[in-house]
Amino acid sequence: MRTTVLVIGGGATGVGVARDLALRGVDVTLVERGPLAAGTTGRSHGVLHSGARYAEADPDDAAACLAENRILREVAPACVRETGGYFLQLDGDDPDYFERKRRACADLGMGATVLDGDELRDRVPAASPAVSRALAVPDAVISPARLVVANAVDAREAGATIHTGAPVESISVDDGRVRSVEVGGDLDATVEAAAVVNATGPWAERCARLAGVSVPMRPTRGVMVAVENPGVDAVLNRCRPPADGDIVVPRPDEVVLGTTSVAVDDPDDFERSAAEVERTVSECAAMCPAVADAPTVRTYWGVRPLYAPDDPDDARAISRGFALLDHAADGAEGLYTVVGGKLTTYRRMAEATADRVCDRLGVSATCRTADRPLPGHDDPDRLDDLVGEFGVDAPADGVGEGTPR
Ligand SMILES: Cc1cc2nc3c(=O)[nH]c(=O)nc-3n(C[C@H](O)[C@H](O)[C@H](O)COP(=O)(O)OP(=O)(O)OC[C@H]3O[C@@H](n4cnc5c(N)ncnc54)[C@H](O)[C@@H]3O)c2cc1C
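A: This is the predicted complex of the input protein with flavin-adenine dinucleotide.
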């Protein structure tokens, strides 16, 4: 079969790329080996970052998060819960770090405000007596499942074709150009495309290798523990340099505690360590003591798609920005990899990718996704029906095969 652009991967990035291209009038086909969102997208905390988390360490990435946070609240309100968020300084935490974060957020124009411990506990009664100060920031909670189906539906309505259960098994390159892609599973076809986008998240290195191309990555796993909600309705972040167990994310009936960061060799097969689960719960209990005894609803793991060309010693030092790689210089013209980034920045990653692909194709249509509402933007029930119809796998939302019953 033929398509103009083949997108590999049905996480937020892949469906975002397919939607962006389809809205520009490009003929696009997306293939996903499992159900939609079955990779990292459905296994994240689901925080719509304000950028505060990265503000002092990576202001450019933080600015991108803030811009996308504002856009997604506008175009996809049914995917977003406006919870707000706080960075908590506990007794003994470095006050200079709190000040650096506060200044960095102010520099970004975020409108972050400082509360003392009592003011914070008035707003979040379950917060620890050890909280001495808090920085209020516009973090929110996003539903990966709803977001992915909304993108997939808009892509499909604009003419894209989406195949799930369709793993890419080989990519044939000849004379420095990608010629065709073998897709197995339910599709079982040879696909010829003018451009191929590798949007396979932590599997991007493995997928690129099918075309003989190297994409240096350092995927790291992180655990998330959903427990019954002891009365938290805002995102709580520990105000210290990123460490294990420094985030608590509220969902309607539960809070998701996270997370850890441990390198994995294989995103499909990695150790799930009980010690990481325990550490995550005990560290989060420092911010919110009641989570220590709250019944566990489920535990799930995700793998960060970290792009690491410089291979630093500490994986936490790897940028959470994204990379868009054009593999023409690697002898695979027509193949692009988009990797790294965050759920929060998926739309921007998709826009950059679609811009590059359109340059190659000679398509002059521009991106429309920053101000076009997503389908179901005002209708959460419709989105939940679509999540069911697509069979999305997103334990972050408590839906799909990955969600223990
Ligand atoms: C523990 C953890 C917590 C996180 N929390 C947040 C958060 O709160 N907020 C935030 O903004 N970001 C968060 N992130 C980051 C965010 O989840 C990811 O950056 C983002 O979801 C990646 O999306 P993606 O589409 O690029 O990759 P993925 O969602 O992994 O999608 C790639 C897809 O490619 C498919 N695939 C792989 N190989 C093939 C193949 N050969 N053929 C066909 N399909 C294939 C996979 O099945 C998968 O569905 C978190 C990440 C982790 C690990």
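The CA atoms of residues 75 and 372 lie 6 Å apart. The two ends are 39 Å apart (CA to CA).
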